[in-house]
């Protein structure tokens, strides 16, 4: 099977989309995944932002280096070459476009990918959020990502120790520091963007974070450690033990599915129990606003862009029985409503209870 060339749907918001990519090194933090004590943690971070776009400008590529995704293909039990066509996919974003003038500055969201994932794996959701007035910075976590390509051509490939649950649990706080370091770098970027585009346009007083799978764990951990994150969105993953013990103090939404759907996907019962039990434990301990949103029929990869890859993803059991575009519509609607309420102060009726337009969604909320 080869993936076909597909198109991302046009986002529903009024803003065009620009994108920039940065290479940042954290001089104070040793690299935890390599044996060389002189190595320092370095990240590739892609930023999408509301932009003033020229319709004739070329669109940015989806994945410039699809060869780096070979470890993800192996994890999905696909052949390594399957992602090659992704180099022909373009997005709705324009590289280095000027920032839109709709607002003086825009709230900031950090995005963390799943295990053996890649920073662009939630491009559909990212573009939707940006079109409604958010700046989103997605991190490639070296050695937890499928493959990270640095500007000088070096490549940090997926560390197979990340397949071991005990090893992963020990690395969650370290990966959360990637998000905190990125937030610090965004502050420096707001002071003076070396690319001359984003200076003064990031509202870091309104910062949130979201992530899928491993990225959801990282997001929850970062919210526990860093009070500057004012809202946390977690997608389909169990919670780190220290988050369960301490709880979270920020508005949090969980996007997941019911146990029956997890069983249909083939998840082990122990993983199902841990995922739903730990998410619910943190949800029920929240001192303020919280949302527990389950979407029956969605498989784990339905929370990513996977449903766009091929009609065969459902047949292969990668995505679930829910229609892929319907799944993306649900994710986008609830994610946008959550951040709009808690970072922009909008009332957002969708978060008040079960919604007529999404009858399949099992919705629970907590209010102080």
Q: Based on helices, strands and strand pairing, what is the structural class?
A: alpha/beta
Domain count: 1
Biggest β-sheet: count, sense, barrel? 10 strands, mixed
What is the CATH homology-level superfamily?
A: Alpha/Beta hydrolase fold, catalytic domain
- In what order do the strands lie side by side in the largest sheet? 3-1-2-5-4-8-9-10-11-12
CATH topology: Rossmann fold
Q: What's the count of strands?
A: 12
Kindly provide the name of the CATH class: Alpha Beta
Please provide the ordered H/E string of secondary-structure elements: EEHEEHEEEHEHEHEHHEHHHE
Q: CA-to-CA gap between the ends?
A: 50 Å
The number of helical segments is: 10
Strand residue content: 15-25%
Supply Rg: 19 Å
The helix content is 25-40%
Model description:
The protein has 368 residues and is of the alpha/beta class. It has one domain (16-366): 3-Layer(aba) Sandwich (Rossmann fold). It has 10 helices and 12 strands. It has helices at residues 70-75, 123-131, 165-191, 214-225, 241-246, 259-265, 269-285, 306-309, 312-315, 324-344; strands spanning 16-30, 40-51, 93-95, 106-112, 135-140, 147-149, 155-157, 202-212, 229-235, 252-256, 290-294, 362-366. A 10-stranded mixed β-sheet has the order 3-1-2-5-4-8-9-10-11-12, with helices on both faces. Strands 6-7 form a two-stranded antiparallel sheet. β9 (229-235), α5 (241-246) and β10 form a beta-alpha-beta unit. α3 (165-191) packs across α4. The longest helix has 27 residues, at 165-191. The radius of gyration is 19 Å and the shape is globular. The termini are far apart. The mean pLDDT is 94.
């Amino acid at each position: 099977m080869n993936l076909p060339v597909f198109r991302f749907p046009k986002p529903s918001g009024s803003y065009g989309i620009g994108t920039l990519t940065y290479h940042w090194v954290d001089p104070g933090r040793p690299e935890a995944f390599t044996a060389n004590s002189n190595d320092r943690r370095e990240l590739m971070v892609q930023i999408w932002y509301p932009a003033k776009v020229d319709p004739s400008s070329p669109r940015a590529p989806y994945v410039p280096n699809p060869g780096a995704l070979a470890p993800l293909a192996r994890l999905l039990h696909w052949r390594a070459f399957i992602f090659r066509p992704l180099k022909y996919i373009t997005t709705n974003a324009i590289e280095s476009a000027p920032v839109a003038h709709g607002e003086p500055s825009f709230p900031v969201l950090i995005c963390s990918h799943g295990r053996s994932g890649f920073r662009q794996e939630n491009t559909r959701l990212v573009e939707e959020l940006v079109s409604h007035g958010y700046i989103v910075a997605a991190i490639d976590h070296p050695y937890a990502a499928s493959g990270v390509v640095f500007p000088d051509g070096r490549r940090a490939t997926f560390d197979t120790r990340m397949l071991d649950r005990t090893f992963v649990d020990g690395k969650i706080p370290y990966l959360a520091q990637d998000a905190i370091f990125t937030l610090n770098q965004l502050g420096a970027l707001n002071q003076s963007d070396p690319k001359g585009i984003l200076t003064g346009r990031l509202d870091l007083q309104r910062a949130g974070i979201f992530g899928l799978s491993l990225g959801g764990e990282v997001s929850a951990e970062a919210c526990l450690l860093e009070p500057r994150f004012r809202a946390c969105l977690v997608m389909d993953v169990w919670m780190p033990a220290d988050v369960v013990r301490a709880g979270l103090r920020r508005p949090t939404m969980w996007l997941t599915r019911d146990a029956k759907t997890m069983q249909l996907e083939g998840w082990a019962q122990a993983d199902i129990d841990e995922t739903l039990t730990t998410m619910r434990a943190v949800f029920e301990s929240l001192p303020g606003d919280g949302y527990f949103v389950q979407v029956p029929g969605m498989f784990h990869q339905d929370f990513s862009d996977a449903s766009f890859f091929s009609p065969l993803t459902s047949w292969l059991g990668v995505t679930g029985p829910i229609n892929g575009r319907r799944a993306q519509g649900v994710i986008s609607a609830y994610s946008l409503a959550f951040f709009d309420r808690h970072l922009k102060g909008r009332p957002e009726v969708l978060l008040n209870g079960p919604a007529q337009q999404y009858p399949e969604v099992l919705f629970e909320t907590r209010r102080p």
